C-alpha cells in the first residue's frame, strides 16, 4: 500500500486535466459555439492517439506483436467483442514468446 | 468510461430539439432522479468490471501499488485516458507527456459536456459542475437518451456516475491484486494488453463512419518517425496532434 509522491502528483495532474475536459466544453458553450471544424478535430483525437501508440509498438515489435495485432483486429471484426479479441491477442503473443 | 464507447456512437452533438423550450426553465435535480440513474447504470456492470480489472492488471505491471491504482481510478475516472497514460509511464515520470496524453484521450469530453449545456445550464453550479465529474461515455449517452425521452431530472447523470465509480474502483483494486500476484507481465503477454485493446477498439471506429482512416494513418506514421528521432514519449503527442489536425482538415474539406 505504498504511495509514491511523484505518482500522487501525476495522478492529481491527470485528474485535474480530465476534469477540465469534462467541465471545459460545458463552460465554453457560454461563450463560443463549437464549429464543425473544431468538432471534427476533437473527434479525430482519440483515434489519432491510438494510432500513435500502436504504430511504434508494431514498428519496434517482432513477429509476436505483429501476429498479436492482426489477431486482435481480425477477432474484433469477426466477434465484435473486445474481450474475446483482447484475450485471443494476448494469448497469441504469450504463446509465440514462449516458443 | 468503457473504451468501446470512446466516441459517442452515432449520438448527435446537438441538443435535443424537442427539449429546446426547456432551456430557460430550471430542470429538476432530485434524489429520485439520482437513484433512477444509479440503478440504470447497472447494465454497464460487466463492461466496467472487465475494463477496471484490466486497468488494475496493467497498473500492477507498471509497478503501481494498490493504493496508487485505486486513487488513479477514483480521481481520474476515465478508462481510455488511464490506459493510454500508462503507456507513457516510466521512471522518472514524464508529467507533461502524461497530462497531454490524458488531455488528448479526453478531448471528446469537451464535446460531450457542450451537449449538456442546454439541459444543465439553468442549474446551480454545484449541481452542474458536480455532475460533470461523473460524466463518462456510456452514462452521457444514457442521460441524453433519458432526456430525449422527456425526463428532465438532471440528477440522473450524477446517479449513473456514482454507481459506476464504485464498480470502477473495486474492479481496479481486484485487478491490481491479481496483476501483482501474477508476476512477469512479459511472459503472460500483459504488456500487450493495451495494444490489443486499442487495435480492437480502432476497428469499432471504422463502423461509426466519419473521419477515421486519415487521423489513424497520419497518427501511425508521424509517431513512428518521431520516436525514431526524439527520445521519450513525445511520439504519442506528435502523432495524435498531426492525426487530429489532418482529420479535422479533411473532414471539413469533404463537407
The span between the termini of chain B is 30 Å
Query: Residue ranges of chain A: pLDDT <50 for 5 or more in a row?
Result: none
Helix content of chain A: over 70%
Secondary-structure element sequence of chain A? HHHH
Biggest interface and residues each:
A-B, 75 and 103 residues
Mean pLDDT of chain B: 85
Number of strands of chain B: 0
Low-confidence stretches of chain B: 1-23
**Major sheet of chain A: size, sense and barrel closure?**
none
**Oligomeric grouping of the chains:** heterodimer
N-to-C SSE string of chain B, H for helix and E for strand: HHHHHHHHHHHH
Morphology call of chain A: extended
Beta-strand residue percentage of chain B: under 5%
Q: Tell me the strand percentage band of chain A.
A: under 5%
| Estimated structural class of chain B | mainly alpha
| Radius of gyration over C-alpha positions of chain A, nearest whole angstrom | 19 Å
Mean pLDDT of chain A: 91
Amino acid at each position: 500500500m505504498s504511495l509514491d509522491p511523484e505518482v500522487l502528483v501525476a495522478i492529481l495532474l491527470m485528474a485535474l486535466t480530465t476534469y477540465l475536459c469534462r467541465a471545459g466544453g460545458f463552460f465554453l458553450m457560454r461563450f463560443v459555439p463549437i464549429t464543425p471544424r473544431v468538432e471534427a478535430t476533437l473527434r479525430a483525437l482519440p483515434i489519432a492517439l491510438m494510432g500513435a501508440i500502436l504504430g511504434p509498438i508494431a514498428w519496434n515489435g517482432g513477429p509476436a506483436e505483429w501476429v498479436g495485432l492482426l489477431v486482435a483486429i481480425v477477432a474484433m471484426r469477426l466477434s465484435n467483442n473486445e474481450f474475446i479479441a483482447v484475450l485471443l491477442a494476448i494469448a497469441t503473443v504469450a504463446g509465440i514468446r514462449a516458443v | 468510461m468503457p473504451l468501446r464507447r470512446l466516441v459517442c456512437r452515432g449520438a448527435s452533438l446537438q441538443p435535443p430539439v424537442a427539449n429546446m423550450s426547456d432551456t430557460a426553465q430550471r430542470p429538476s435535480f432530485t434524489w429520485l432522479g439520482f437513484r433512477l440513474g444509479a440503478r440504470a447504470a447497472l447494465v454497464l456492470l460487466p463492461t466496467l468490471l472487465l475494463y477496471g480489472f484490466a486497468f488494475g492488471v496493467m497498473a500492477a505491471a507498471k509497478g503501481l501499488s494498490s493504493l496508487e491504482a485505486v486513487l488513479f481510478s477514483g480521481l481520474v475516472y476515465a478508462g481510455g485516458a488511464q490506459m493510454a497514460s500508462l503507456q507513457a509511464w516510466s521512471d522518472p515520470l514524464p508529467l507533461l507527456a502524461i497530462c497531454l496524453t490524458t488531455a488528448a484521450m479526453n478531448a471528446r469530453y469537451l464535446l460531450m459536456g457542450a451537449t449538456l449545456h442546454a439541459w444543465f445550464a439553468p442549474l446551480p453550479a454545484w449541481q452542474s459542475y458536480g455532475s460533470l465529474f461523473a460524466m463518462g461515455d456510456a452514462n452521457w449517452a444514457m442521460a441524453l437518451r433519458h432526456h430525449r425521452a422527456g425526463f428532465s431530472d438532471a440528477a440522473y447523470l450524477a446517479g449513473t456516475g456514482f454507481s459506476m465509480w464504485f464498480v470502477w474502483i473495486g474492479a481496479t483494486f481486484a485487478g491490481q491484486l491479481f496483476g501483482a500476484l501474477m508476476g512477469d507481465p512479459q511472459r503472460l503477454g500483459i504488456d500487450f494488453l493495451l495494444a490489443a485493446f486499442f487495435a480492437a477498439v480502432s476497428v469499432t471506429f471504422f463502423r461509426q463512419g466519419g473521419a477515421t482512416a486519415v487521423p489513424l494513418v497520419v497518427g501511425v506514421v508521424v509517431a513512428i518517425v518521431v520516436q525514431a528521432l526524439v527520445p521519450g514519449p513525445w511520439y504519442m503527442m506528435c502523432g495524435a496532434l498531426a492525426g487530429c489536425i489532418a482529420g479535422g482538415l479533411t473532414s471539413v474539406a469533404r463537407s
